[in-house]
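$ fold --in a.seq
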Amino acid sequence: MNITTLQVVLPLYCVFLFVFSLQIPKTMTQGNCSSVTEFILLGFSDHPKLQIPLFVLFLLIYLITLVGNLGMILLIWVDSRLQTPMYFFLSNLNLSFLDICYSLSIVPRLLSDLLAERKVISYAACLTQFYFYSVFATTECYLLAVMAYDRYVAICNPLFYTVVMSPRVCGLLVAGSYMAGSLNSLVHMSIAFQLAFCGPNVINHFYCDGPLLYALSCSDTHVNDMVMFVLVGFNMIMTNLAILISYAYILDTILRRIQSAEGRRKALSTCASHLMAVTIFYGSAASMYSRPSSRHSQNLDKVASVFYTVVTPMLNPLIYSLRNKEVKDTLRKIRIALSGIVLQNLSGVL
């Protein structure tokens, strides 16, 4: 599977996910005796005076997220110097694309609820949000691990980098990340088919998440809780292990094989952006999912959730652009070109 094929297949695959997810809630409604038709989201805060300030804050973050990630995709597309495996994993249908989708699955609902007196989400919309959120979150975990492997090859085996990280290999790694995210979500949804919701319908959160949904079910949710704990634990252990092993080899190479201070500085600079993104994403996710749901502190969970669902998608393009010489050079060229166009138009008018 080459990159061009991937760019055609993945959008179609995402459309399939969307259509399929719309059918999931209908199937679940027909398959159990649920009497609940909607859920009430308590939101990020219940203080009336904070609703407008929070709306402005999250709207600003949302706009920066969209502009930053779309801008990153555009920069990599227009500059041939940035069309390498490292930047391929950042653009197109990869990290920047995932961050946009990730944000779209959470933030619009959060913004609308901040302005609404009654924060209601339908049964179907709640389950659909959980489905998409699970797909994109898990996919991003595996993609971050893939990017760590890419850095390992670039620093530890630079002479074979273009051979090892060929377009076909890059395409397979990205496709594998999407498949892992999809399978993870399908497992959660398949066992959620068995749940009935016939009692309380208040979710103390700003989006629909699995453990909180399970807590409201009047069915036995031990299997759901265990599967959630095992799958999330497995995904985090496997991806973190891949990242740790990659960086262990990178550190060994920097200390033993790279002798010059400039070479070491350049190697560390190459990894710094990825390490920062990984720390923010996995750190906040671990604080949310590393314990069984019955032991969660929901207020702390909301804060952690804001970091990996709202803040992280905004920070990723900033981290990778502000700490990257090639991206900054491209931005400078575009700024100079735009300034020239503006000055030319102004001189023509005058």
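$ fold --in b.seq
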Amino acid sequence: MIEKLKTRARSIPKLQFGTGSRAEPSPVTTYYLILVPVICLIAIGFVMVFSASTVRVISQGENPYTAYLRNLLIMAFGVFTLVVAMRLPNRFWYRAAPWVFIATLILQFLVVTPLGVESGGNTNWIMIPGISFLIQPSEALKVGMALFIGWVIIRLNLDRTNFTHIAVNVGLPLAVGLGGIMAGHDLGTALVVVALAAGALAAARVPGKWFGIAVLAFIPVAAFAVFQNQSRLQRVISVIPGFRQPPNPAAPEQIDHALWALGSGGLTGVGPGASKEKWNYLAEAHTDFIFAILGEELGLIGTVFVVVTFAVLIYGLTRLSLYHSDDFSRIVSGGVTMWIGAQAIINMGAVVAVLPVIGVPLPLISTGGSAFVATCAGLGIVLSFARKDSGMEKAFGLRTLFRRPSKK
């Protein structure tokens, strides 16, 4: 029976993608599966940041348009970073990888110096002296970590089936980076970086059983980090079935307001800018809970569109990490895939009360200069890889068939 099924499966003709004869995804399609969702998400963020942050800014006595102009300048810088990153060749990122990692690692450990600034229980910001400008180095470290894992595996020609080689050359630098992040008590970013590393190693095709070992080793570490902080513990317990308390109308929690926002949005939403929950009911309406405000204002249609857009983006990134012809590009792309995917799932999962709230922004949509610029940099790097895939020049060469002949 099994042999019959195998024979029938072999007889089914394979779909041919792209311009070659190989049954592989078209690199041009992969490129646009990444680029188009990125543009859509940035456009949505452009609108939602203004809508979700206006009330907070007014309550602080500021002009909302002046504050939004600052956000707009940050977004413009992020888009500029993305465009520059995607125009640089693969070899530039390969050569820059160790230096980017070292620079971002040094920045991360500055959070434990007098430059570190505490916010929301986490000391994950540093103040730039002289200009009173805050940056979150852990966001930049994501870019450095993704590049470094790809670089060290290729540069040292590591035996990817040798656990010791990977543990020493990848695991130790990863542990140092995570130590710097946890020094600022930022568990959310630490989890995203762990997911990033897992994605990079999966793209490097290390043995699958190692991930099981890593999970078993990581569980007690994560449990210790949760039990060390009463607020974290309460947030984790609150999403476990049977432990969550019913909403208390007299003293609702943030997650209650988030669910009310999503529920009141209905199918089409209450309209852009018309959210009620952002009127100081949701404390982090512009960052951690912006997905709830989006659902309230744009309804189920808006939230489904965002979820589908993220799904298409992750699909495009996954294609790149599986089929790119360059090993370094494939490994880095795997890391960025898990970075964006894990962060989006954690944020949206927290808003719908499936996952605990751990302070992770929604990529490209939430307010946050450091997060937005770092995400743009990471996506710009993978877009540069997609532009330089081996099939791109050949595929784009077909466009010459449709050009008007030049006059002689």
